[in-house]
Design goal:
By secondary structure, this protein is of the alpha+beta class. About 40% of the residues lie in helices and about 30% in strands. The chain is built from seven helices and nine strands; from the N terminus they run H-E-E-E-E-E-E-E-E-E-H-H-H-H-H-H. A nine-stranded antiparallel beta sheet has the order 1-2-3-6-7-8-9-4-5, with no helix packed on it. A hairpin with a 5-residue loop joins strand 8 and strand 9. The longest helix is centred in the first third of the chain and has 23 residues.
Length: about 290
Amino acid sequence: MKSSSRTLGATLLVGGLLLSGAAKAQISTPAASPKSTVTQRVGLTDVTITYSRPSAKGRAVFGTLVPFGKRWRTGANQTTTIKFSDDVTLEGKKLPAGEYGIYTIPNKTEWLVVLNKNTKQGADVDGFKDDQDVVRVSAKTYKLGAKAETFTIGFSDLTPATANVDMMWELTGAKFKISTDVDPKVMAQIDEKVIKNANASANDMAAAAVYYYDNNKDMKQALTWIQKVNEKEPKFWNVHTEAKIKMKLKDYKGAAASAEQSRKLALDAKNADYVKMNEDLMAEAKKGK
């Protein structure tokens, strides 16, 4: 009898726990405005934007659903945020590294983009505190070629040091420019790892030579570095860099010779892209003679 009572008690206890767990469990359903995170490296800086993406669903958006001239949280749900791993410049205005809330005031031809210290404001844009603004910049609007049913933030027009942040919904886009201070950081690394290092690695010297070439710095110094690399163990990509530097120095004969060497190495490596690039460079060198 005691054994039956214990069994019944245990069964009731387990059943009670299961019912309690079931009562606490919540049904998961898809969000109407799903959360999204997009990250882009701009120069040497990581830029991360986290936002929620509402859809138009047949509604007119700007000027109606999102009124002109009023503060908007730039998405839905929680505050849209943007995070920079380093100091940046937005449309010519300096901004320290950190995370900020993005708020916008849309108008027909231009939006005001406001970055604020508050990242928890959410939908309460009326409770917004202007004294926590960090920077305000203008974003020109443009007409999209195709309808964006769902609000989208992305990056475009990337260069080694800049990118545009694009905000797009329905047939309207607005964008602002992020600039990063790349050159001092790269030059500091080159100074430490190559210029002041008697035992600089081949990879670092090659990287320094490519950076000098890409940014129109001292071509003779770039050539010295890449030639040192190619003396020991020539690789088709590094020899091609040597050919390009010689072209920029107007040493057409030397450029053609290096391009031919790179072409042969690329053929051995079965790299058709570099074979073609070297053939093109040889043709250009022939024109310059």
